[in-house]
Design a protein that fits this description.
224 residues, Rossmann fold, alpha/beta, 7 strands
């Protein structure tokens, strides 16, 4: 049985991707900050699921996640993310302390988890899937804090792929999705596709083990 660790899996893309993998018989370790929402997600996902509530920026919580996959890990999905303060600020007014918190969740915590589980991923020729955004490469006003954190995650992924040739490293832009995060950003989430569409595309990426690199879910959907 393959094992995946998916952060931020209580809702949205993380939950939808977990359902895709559960249908394939994967054992899943999932996390989110809201214990009640995470338990509901675990029931919805079904199959073999270990739900561990906590904040990925907390080293003690990351240690709990690593212990939960002690038997071996095939896939790490760094999906947990934060927009930062909302309403979102223009860069001229963005508090630097808030930006530091955004980087802690969107960049430093994913790297810390990667460092913790790399030995297992190397041993099993596993994969890392880092969820990024078009905000990493586009000049959307008020998205500077979030976008710069995702740009950092992308370059981290790019270098990691060069350093770890035996591990597949993907950084993927899922596109707009009907999620609470998009709604919190003040966008029209109701007109966006459901996260299940992007999850199906990422499921294809995982199962076909495409080469390391940056992928857009819309391109992967067209290639299926």
């Amino acid at each position: 049985m393959k094992t995946a660790l998916i952060t931020g899996a209580s809702r949205g893309l993380g939950r939808a991707l977990a359902r895709e993998l559960a249908r394939d018989g994967w054992h899943l370790v999932i996390d989110a900050r809201d214990a009640t929402a995470l338990a509901a997600a675990a029931d919805d996902i079904g199959g073999s699921v270990a739900a561990i509530a906590g904040d990925v920026t907390d080293p003690a919580h990351r240690a709990d996640l690593v212990r939960a996959v002690d038997g071996g890990l095939d896939l790490l999905v760094n999906n947990a993310s934060t927009l930062g303060p909302t309403p979102m600020y223009r860069l001229a007014a963005l508090p630097v302390t808030d930006l530091a918190d955004t980087f802690a969740t969107n960049v430093l915590a994913p790297l810390a988890l990667i460092q913790d589980v790399l030995p297992s991923l190397r041993e099993r020729r596993g994969a890392i899937l880092n969820i990024t955004s078009d905000a990493a490469v586009e000049d959307y006003e008020t998205w500077g804090g979030y976008g710069s954190s995702k740009a950092a995650l992308e370059q981290l992924s790019n270098v990691l792929a060069a350093e770890e040739p035996e591990v597949a490293v993907w950084w993927t832009d899922p596109g707009e999705m009907n999620t609470e995060m998009l709604r919190a950003a003040g966008e029209d989430a109701d007109s966006a596709p459901p996260p299940e569409e992007a999850a199906a595309a990422l499921h294809h990426l995982v199962t076909t083990r495409l080469p390391s690199g940056r992928y857009r879910a819309s391109d992967l959907a067209g290639a299926r």
